[in-house]
């Protein structure tokens, strides 16, 4: 799930010190698992920080997410991918404080929404270990690269295309603002290949060494996925 983004400064102001430290490390390009700073509620200033401080259940969920992130970043076969996805999550994390109309939610609703968002992110991070991973990245993954994750052991089997980020041509700002592909679909057998409802007529051929897309795939009005071979990581 991709959340609406905020400016880099705004996103860090809305996080507790541990996550702010994590996000800053990610922006600097450090890929080793960071050590979270202790959380000092005496320094909580933003609405999200104060909510976490005053809600043991949310604080516990947030702490579990940090542990799940560090484990996923350590084990994932495509260096930099988990860090990039976490930056997108961090940018949208404060949105859990808002109601459907975009106004500040009541405290009970905000707590419920924030816990739900964090628990979903924990599940996403934990599920990464089940993925076959393919990419056009030749080394460190960057958001401009494409990662293809295939969850073949799940029922039904599914595929996720993530990346191919590009800035908004009219208001260019750094990642994570701009246009990002995050397309998820159910794989449907079609002879020796697979198709999906979301990827048009492109046939997807899975192999131990690579995945092949027979045709380009439209992801968003601004981003697309090229046909061709993507190597297994």
Structural summary, described in words:
This protein is of the alpha+beta class and 233 residues long. The chain folds into 2 domains: 8-130, no CATH class; 132-232, no CATH class. It is built from 6 helices and 11 strands. A 7-stranded antiparallel beta sheet has the order 4-3-2-1-11-8-7, with no helix packed on it. A two-stranded antiparallel ribbon has the order 5-6. Strands 9-10 form a two-stranded antiparallel ribbon. Helix 4 runs parallel beside helix 6. The protein is elongated, with a radius of gyration of 18 Å. Residues 1-38 have low confidence and may be disordered.
Relevant terms:
233 residues, alpha+beta, two-stranded antiparallel ribbon, 6 helices, disordered N terminus
- Order of strands, widest sheet: 4-3-2-1-11-8-7
CA(first)-CA(last) distance: 23 Å
What is the gyration radius calculated from CA atoms? 18 Å
How would you sum up the global shape? elongated
Q: How many separate domains?
A: 2
Measured as a percent range, the helix fraction is: 25-40%
Which structural class is indicated by helix and strand composition? Answer: alpha+beta
- Counted by DSSP, the helix tally is 6
SSE pattern = HHHHHHEEEEEEEEEEE
Q: Which oligomeric form is depicted?
A: single chain
Strand content is 15-25%
Largest sheet: 7 strands, antiparallel
How many distinct beta strands? 11
> Which regions are unreliable across 5 or more consecutive residues at pLDDT < 50?
1-38
């Amino acid at each position: 799930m991709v959340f609406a983004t905020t400016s880099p400064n705004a996103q860090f102001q809305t996080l507790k010190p541990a996550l702010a430290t994590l996000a800053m490390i990610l922006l600097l390009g450090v890929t080793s698992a960071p050590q979270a700073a202790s959380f000092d509620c005496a320094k909580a200033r933003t609405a999200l920080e104060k909510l976490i401080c005053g809600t043991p259940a949310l604080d516990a969920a947030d702490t579990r997410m940090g542990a799940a992130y560090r484990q996923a970043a350590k084990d994932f076969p495509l260096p930099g991918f988990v860090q990039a996805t976490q930056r997108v999550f961090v940018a949208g994390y404060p949105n859990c404080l808002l109601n459907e109309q975009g106004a500040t939610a009541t405290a009970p609703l905000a707590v419920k929404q924030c816990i739900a968002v964090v628990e979903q992110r924990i599940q996403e991070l934990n599920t990464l270990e089940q993925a076959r991973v393919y990419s056009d990245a030749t080394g460190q993954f960057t958001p401009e690269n494409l990662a293809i994750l295939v969850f073949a052991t799940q029922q039904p089997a599914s595929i996720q295309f993530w990346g191919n980020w590009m800035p908004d041509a009219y208001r260019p700002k750094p990642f994570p603002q701009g246009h990002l592909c995050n397309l998820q679909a159910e794989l449907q057998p079609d002879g020796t290949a697979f198709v999906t409802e979301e990827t048009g007529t492109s046939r997807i051929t899975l192999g131990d060494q690579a995945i092949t897309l027979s045709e380009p795939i439209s992801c968003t009005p601004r981003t697309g996925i090229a046909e061709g071979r993507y190597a297994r990581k």
